[in-house]
Amino acid sequence: MTTGADGDDDPYLWLEDVDGAEAAQWVRDRNAETLATLTGAERFASLRAEIRQVLDADHRIPYPGWRGDRFYYNFWRDAAHPRGLWRRTTLDRYRRQVPEWDLLLDVDALAAEEGESWVWGGVTVLRPGYQRCLISLSRGGADATVVREFDLERREFVPGGFTLPEAKSDAGWIDLDHVYVATDFGPGSLTTSGYPRVVKRWRRGTPLAEAEVVYEARAEDVAVYASHDPTPGFVRDFVGRSLDFYRTENFLLTEAGERVRIPVPEDASWDVHREWLVIRLRSPWQVGAVTHPAGALLATRFDAFLAGERELTTLFCPDERTALSYHVWTRNHLIIATLVDVRSRLTVLTPGETGWRREPLAGVPADEHSRLVETDPDLGDDYLLASEGFLRPATLRLGRVGGPVEVLKREPASFDAADLAVRQCFARSADGTRVPYFVVGREPTSPGPALLTGYGGYEIPLTPDYDGAVGRGWLARGGTYVVANIRGGGEYGPRWHHAAMRENRTRAYEDFAAVASDLVAQGITTPAQLGIEGGSNGGLLMGVMLTRYPALFGAVVAQVPVLDMRRYHRLLAGASWMAEYGDPDREEDWAYLREYSPYHQVRGGAYPPVLLVTSTRDDRVHPGHARKMAARLHEHGHDVSYYENVEGGHGGGADNEQHAFIWALVLEFLWRKLTPSGQAIPRQASADASERAQVFRR
């Protein structure tokens, strides 16, 4: 059976019934087929064990978070605690080779006690005071969470405290006895994207139903928010709504309950720190006689700006090779992170009487990718900095702007990289655009198996990182790993993103195809040996590659993918993505969406084998995308494997065991399809503790 051109007579619509009996049986049958095919060999067991060892390793850096009370907080998973421990310690104890931790919450013990498959969803700590927090827990890793108030001194949930049932909620502290809460309040309280439409101020000890409405968005908006800034001398409250994925309308909420519009461009992002307002532009903004370009970062004094003054200081202006990645505040300084041809740079900006002084951030290695892990704008000018590379495990440093920098932790190697190298290359896309990509592996003497990944959406850049699972499961076994920095991402700022939005989406796909062709032209691999993998929007990328460029690849893996561009906006959070892709209900948008929608472009002929991986508990990208695509591919006689994890949410796995299983499944599939005999090059012995130190000192 085939579908109509627009998918309106979709014969696989029944697979969108997430927990329906017929759909659930279909999932069980497909899982059984895939597991029987891929998991029986010794190599799968070895892959799974090695990846699990990497994910659970005791020598991983326990990355900390700062909450304003001078403790180092950490959430940790390992073999003994698969769902994780939330804990904290002091700086002196964190400096030790094996820190001594103060346990706050054992999620495994809580799950066992309550008979729930709890997955950690994050925490919001009360400022100031720091004695209470709001903990979010999801069932099986979904975006929807249960929120509970927790006492940090007693290490227990607060009886009768602030508690929200399962929903896609947003809750934040005002003071000890009040919170802002946006959640599912019942019929009419959600947007068409499935997020809260109404935000309320909730007072302790009163029913949630009696909470005071603070602000309401429209049903067609994406979501609503409210937040409280408790900074002494600069106490402020904000409310606003997301008009779409990129545009917001924002207000200062006065003590009298009046809303004062913050007149920044709707598609700009902004934040307020003490007296300063910082604005990051996504599109050009004309102010008086000056037009500030997209990608610029501007600063002004917040109160003066609200009063009508427009004295804006340009803190960053992009060029053809350089883009702003993000910015963060310390107490007295602003740190901006930029990418220069996808290589990180960090700069400190300091406001003064004569303007903003700038200098490089201390402690940043020149040849690694560095990112700011944490600052504490309330307390001072300290920062935590992590630096790593594709072949270099992370180093965590503690620095202070204008002061010393010390190494806190070094992560040992997860695989032997002695004969591996990294190089950056550039491919030419169909329209002549220069597209960067990184190649990680041995210097090729002949073409071999390669794994290419990409994303290309939502202005999200792919930057170098140390992935022990890929290292052990792919690189150490002889494969080459490639990361493509295609348009749609944020590698070169808004212009790189805008170039592949909506009707221009196919440019991202042309970029990825150009990288694949360049790998073959360089002799790194062949089409039969080239596998590709991507997730979410990257899963859409994989679907397009499968249906539009099948001759370029030997195997395709799409994880938690978006594939049905006719109905994506009607499934779960899909309506919130229309600013990125377009509205399928508009004839002019569907005219271009249908041309690449993977589900609608499946045809007969020669396709590479494909593995589709998703999660029943993914409440962001509906598992129906992958289910229906698998059924459609099978209908046309293609080689398709399918695996649906019951848990995991949009992250695919709820714990390290599930993540290890899925990645072993992916890599086993790729090795089987990309090597003539289905056998990878024999793996190297992993570096032992003494070797690791030598391997990574170069």
TrEMBL record:
Protein name, per record: Prolyl oligopeptidase family protein
UniProt xrefs under Pfam families: Peptidase_S9, Peptidase_S9_N
Keywords annotated in UniProt: Hydrolase, Protease, Serine protease
SUPFAM superfamilies, A to Z: alpha/beta-Hydrolases, Peptidase/esterase 'gauge' domain
InterPro entries tied to this protein: AB_hydrolase_fold, Pept_S9A_N, Peptidase_S9_cat, Peptidase_S9A, Prolyl_oligopep/macrocyclase
Domain Peptidase S9A N-terminal: 10-247
Coiled-coil segments: none
Keyword Protein biosynthesis part of the UniProt annotation: no
The Peptidase S9 prolyl oligopeptidase catalytic domain, residue ranges: 475-674
